[in-house]
Amino acid sequence: MSVAKKDIVVIGSGLGGLSTALRLASRGHKVRILEKHSTPGGRLNQFKEKGFTFDLGPSFMSMTFEFDELFRDCGIENPLKLKELDPLYEVNFRGSSKTFRIWKDIHKLSREFKDIEPDFESKAKVYLQRAGEFYHDTEGKVIKSNFNNLLDY
């Protein structure tokens, strides 16, 4: 059974809008994207002022497998070449001259916060385990589901 091709309007050219448009276009639909800003990308953009640069959204992508899934779903090879960051980013708090490095490696991260949070590593492992369970419990039911109306949601 073939699906009738449609003209579809996607509102917003953030990561969600762009990936939705790509999926729809790869299925033969004619897609038009409407964006209120002068550049696409939504929160993937930056704001620059007085010599400072601020990310408007996430500073790094932790779920890179989503890109693989997107391009596979569209029948094309993933063109993105991502660079792993180590450390992921740095944090400075007002009133402190110390720069904290946020490491992907839990042992390095634990050493970074040893003076602030006793037994950081075991606490972080418990947190990450629970967060992972929550994510996987809701992934199919909420995260990767479409809802046609508020009542369905």
Which strand-content bin applies to the residues? 15-25%
Mean pLDDT: 91
Q: Any idea what the shape is?
A: extended
Helix amount? 25-40%
Side by side, the strands of the main sheet go 1-2
CATH superfamily of the largest domain: NAD(P)-binding Rossmann-like Domain
- How many β-strand stretches? 6
Secondary-structure-derived class:
alpha+beta
CATH architectural group of the largest domain: 3-Layer(aba) Sandwich
How many domains, in number, for the residues?
Answer: 2
Span from first to last CA?
28 Å
Evaluate the radius of gyration.
20 Å
What CATH calls the topology of the largest domain is Rossmann fold
Report the biggest beta sheet as strand number plus sense, adding barrel if it closes: 2 strands, parallel
Stretches where pLDDT is under 50 for at least 5 consecutive residues are none
H/E element string? EHEEEHEEHH
- Total DSSP helices: 4
CATH class categorisation of the largest domain: Alpha Beta
Question: Characteristics of this structure?
Answer:
Rossmann fold; two-stranded antiparallel sheet; alpha+beta; 4 helices; 2 domains
Task: Explain what this protein looks like in three dimensions.
With 153 residues, this protein is of the alpha+beta class. The chain folds into two domains: 8-83, 3-Layer(aba) Sandwich (Rossmann fold); 85-153, no CATH class. The chain is built from four helices and six strands, in the order E-H-E-E-E-H-E-E-H-H. It has helices at residues 15-26, 65-73, 106-112, 120-143, and strands at 7-11, 30-34, 46-49, 52-55, 89-92, 99-102. It has a two-stranded parallel ribbon. Helix 3 packs across helix 4 (120-143). The longest helix is centred in the last third of the chain and has 24 residues, at 120-143. The radius of gyration is 20 Å and the shape is extended. The protein starts with 6 loop residues before the first strand and ends in a 10-residue tail after the last helix.
